[in-house]
């Protein structure tokens, strides 16, 4: 039997041929697959650490198995994605986005790789060949098996398919190279012009990668004469070019990297594509800055109301919040304070490269939001009392879904219902009487 017939996909009988000693795995077509026994946890650990040591933004002195990508190694979300991509390339695997979002430490990455099914057999469903560490044999199976990445259950073979990522350097977006590059140039230009854009998640990730490189050109513009020419050839609008070498170069002068941030924004209505907000860090409409200031105001108000137990005459001053901000920004991991650990971590990140006046500004924003949070239940209560005086049968005002007033101890499920929750049933409307000629001369029908 020739090698071409041995590796064909046209077989229909359901049988497996014993592996032959004459065919080595290097003869398998498109030999982009790694075969072999399962890796030990120690080898996985050493390879992961070796991969991370080669990343330029990681301090090897802080790197350990228990290190966190964000807290210990100081990586932002984009850097963490690049680190996981390097791990994927090292082990020739692909981690789904939903599971990659749950990997925050080196130990979690090692555990994920260790739990992937390993064994002495690999099934190449593309060519219908059963491959071991040394041999190859023809697999005669139904077409459903050949088109499926899973092992045919009749044979009960423990297999894993590890596809090496050849030629997958970036996303193609179903476009030609010129169309794809023009689209990404347009997105980067819009990002520099508005400093915050909304697009799909895959486009945001590739746009962020290019934007980081262009901003690095802007920082080198004073010393590198060719940087301005290269940036001008890439960007599509002069306004973006001028901001690159003035605003962005001064804003990110002390920041070593991580100039962009991606916020997941649900799915798009219609095609259900994952949406994301891509923004430049420390821009005037920084989402993390706004949400962190609100979180600080909410938690500071809650802490003060816990002590007093009433909303009347309570106000959190900006000076009090400034003391909280100055103490929390210097706390380490595991220390207890007024703010929650996630809020404290966000506060430390947004103040890391901002000017010295930033704590005062965020304290004033937090105090303003604290006044709004404290006043909202009082205003709703007064509106409800006025409405009941005018109409005793009026319904009580309800907060929007997900909103939680201070000192509220209801479970999250009841709060999430809000206006969508069960309501009192309305009285049924009486059926209108329809007058017809027959009913007009029939008294019994009118009485009924």
Automatic annotation (TrEMBL):
Signal peptide limits: none
Protein name: Acyl carrier protein
Function: Carrier of the growing fatty acid chain in fatty acid biosynthesis.
NCBIfam families associated with the record: acyl_carrier, L17, PRK00982.1-2
GO biological process, one term: fatty acid biosynthetic process
Keywords from the named record: Fatty acid biosynthesis, Fatty acid metabolism, Lipid biosynthesis, Lipid metabolism, Phosphopantetheine, Phosphoprotein, Ribonucleoprotein, Ribosomal protein
Family to which the UniProt record says this protein belongs: Belongs to the acyl carrier protein (ACP) family. Belongs to the bacterial ribosomal protein bL17 family.
Pathway: Lipid metabolism; fatty acid biosynthesis
Taxonomic classification: Eukaryota, Fungi, Dikarya, Basidiomycota, Agaricomycotina
Domain Carrier residue range list: 39-117
Single GO cellular component term: mitochondrial [2Fe-2S] assembly complex
Gene Ontology MF: a single term: structural constituent of ribosome
Pfam family, any one: Ribosomal_L17
HAMAP family in UniProt: Acyl_carrier (MF_01217), Ribosomal_bL17 (MF_01368)
Originating organism: Psilocybe cf. subviscida
